[in-house]
Amino acid sequence: MNMTPENHQLIEDLSIANRILYLEGVVDGFGHISARDAQDTTRFWIAKSMAPALVTPSDILQCDLEGVVHDPQNRTCYVERFIHSEIYRARPDVQAIVHSHSMSVIPFGVTSQRLRPICHMSGFLGSHTPIYEIRQTIGETSDLLITSQALGRSLAQSLGAHTVALMRGHGSVAVGVSIAQVVYRAIYTELNAKLQLESMKIGNIEFLTDGEAQATAVMNDQHLKRPWELWKQKALQLPQLL
Ligand code: MN
């Protein structure tokens, strides 16, 4: 295990990110966030199998792209770690991943209503958010969870080059080039879904154009530190951290 200063910082940020995602309503007892190792691109860090809000740095372990856990303490990792391993394999640009069951997103994975960027904070969604259909890989009697490399690979294929993919009847996955960016994206995917559901009650929605989505995403990426510091301060007030 390579515990460089970069990885030490990564694990600290990952621990805080777990709590942030809980406080911002993205994860509950379920869901997870990972970050690719700062040196070894074939490894990533993720918590052992536990509720995200309770994660501390000592709960974070290392996994490889086969989904094999490398933990001196031999602890159990999430059964859905293959979401992470296969997306890291398929997307060399991705440095951090969030998987959640955040509730407002679910309707857009099970209806013909597409999730689209409704405001300037969610331009990163772009013009299309793919929906992963697990039945195409494993048939109609699965538990909907990504519990194998084959399922992880098909999810990664569905995600393609996008920032977010919905998982029909299950949840969603967001990817980013940093922990701060993926946390931002996971939070604003949920908020966008909430706003879209609210707006649908009132009338026809004017979504961002593709150009507006792109421009706002570029702008917001330059200011990730501001919300990150706020979310971090809130998370630090939870007990038992670090
Ligand atoms: Mn899940």
CATH class: Alpha Beta
By CATH, the topology is L-fuculose-1-phosphate Aldolase
Number of strands: 8
Main sheet record: 8 strands, mixed
Q: Helical percent range?
A: 25-40%
Using the CA coordinates, give the radius of gyration. 17 Å
CATH superfamily: Class II aldolase/adducin N-terminal domain
What percent strand? 5-15%
Return the domain count. 1
Bound molecules: manganese (II) ion
How would you describe what is shown here?
40% of the residues lie in helices and 14% in strands. The protein is an alpha+beta fold. The protein has one domain (5-237): Class II aldolase/adducin N-terminal domain (L-fuculose-1-phosphate Aldolase), CATH 3.40.225.10. The chain has an eight-stranded mixed sheet with strand order 4-3-2-1-5-8-7-6, sandwiched between helices. The model has no long low-confidence stretch (mean pLDDT 96). The chain has eight helices and eight strands. α1 packs parallel to α6 (179-202), α1 crosses α8 (225-236) and α2 (81-90) packs across α5. The protein has helices spanning 5-23, 81-90, 107-110, 135-138, 149-159, 179-202, 210-221, 225-236, and strands at 32-36, 43-47, 60-64, 69-70, 96-100, 131-132, 164-167, 171-176. It binds manganese (II) ion (MN). Manganese (II) ion binds next to loops. The site of manganese (II) ion has 6 residues, from loops.
How are the elements arranged and paired?
Elements: H1 5-23, E1 32-36, E2 43-47, E3 60-64, E4 69-70, H2 81-90, E5 96-100, H3 107-110, E6 131-132, H4 135-138, H5 149-159, E7 164-167, E8 171-176, H6 179-202, H7 210-221, H8 225-236
Parallel strand pairs: 6-7
Antiparallel strand pairs: 1-2, 1-5, 2-3, 3-4, 5-8, 7-8
Bound molecules: manganese (II) ion.
